[in-house]
Amino acid sequence: MFFKFIRAIVRVLLAVINGNAHYQNQEKLPEGNYILVAPHRTWWDPFYIALGAAPKQFSFLAKAELFKNPILRFILVHLNAFPVDRDKPGPSVVKRPVKVLKESDKSLIMFPSGTRHSSELKGGMTLISRLSKKPIVPSVYQGPTKFSDLFKRTPVVIRFGDPIDISDIKKMDKDGLAEVEKRVQTAFDQLDREIDPNYKYIAKEKNTD
After folding, report:
1. What gap in Å lies between CA 130 and CA 166, rounded to an integer?
2. How far apart are the first and last CA of the chain?
3. Does the keyword Acyltransferase apply (predicted)?
4. What is the dihedral of CA 26, 27, 29, 31, to 10 degrees?
């Protein structure tokens, strides 16, 4: 209930601030639970992605530092967030989302690149997908990466892709993980081209907004 309430508030706020969001290929989102992955390009792209996949509810991973603030911790916990120690990720980083995917009606949003300014994919999504037996669904955000540009009604586009099949990859060794990462990155690149053939995201060392 809290997740739905917050999502409704966010929907109104983003409509007032920007009001120029477009969601494409929503019909590709599967029934049941899944792992929705995307390259992390802004701090607000998770909100747009969750809005585009509504009415599905989600859990997600958040850096442990955010849970130190009691008010923020309350909000994150009730938004189905799991704390992640990026320096020392423990088994719970995989176990908890797998449990939620298998035993609840909530899917999972992940940004396998880890940070907004990284293009390197991580293997966590692969392990969670394999253990939970839930599909990986790619998505991308194209739109303003500066908060001030949201107020200019710069178009925001969220596009979803076909679920990525990894059933043929038998071993999750170095080569297997590399193949999954390759397929996910290929899906991201394809979705970006489908929105805008000339689009290129330029990662920044710092975001001062």
Report:
1. 9
2. 31
3. yes
4. 140
Give the residue carrying structure tokens 């899944």: 34
Q: Tell me, what's the pLDDT at 115?
A: 58
Does the pLDDT value for residue 95 go beyond 60? Answer: yes
**E strand or H helix at 108:** strand 107-110
Are 58 and 18 a contacting pair, CB within 8 Å? no
What pTM did the predictor assign? 0.88
Structure tokens that stand for 83 in this block: 């704390």
Average pLDDT score over residue span 112-133: 75
pLDDT at residue 208, as a whole number: 43
Assess whether pLDDT exceeds 80 at residue 36.
yes
pLDDT of residue 205: 53
- Sheet containing 58-63: give its strands across: 21-24, 156-160, 136-142, 35-37, 107-110, 58-63, 81-84
125 Cβ contact partners less than 8 Å away, ≥ 6 residues apart: 35, 37, 110, 112, 136, 180, 184
Would you call 207 exposed, middle or buried from its count of C-beta atoms within 10 A (0-12, 13-18, 19+)?
A: middle
Question: What is the C-alpha separation between 138 and 164, in angstroms, rounded?
Answer: 7
* Residue 103 confidence (pLDDT) above 70: yes
- From CA 114, how far away is CA 61, in angstroms rounded? 10
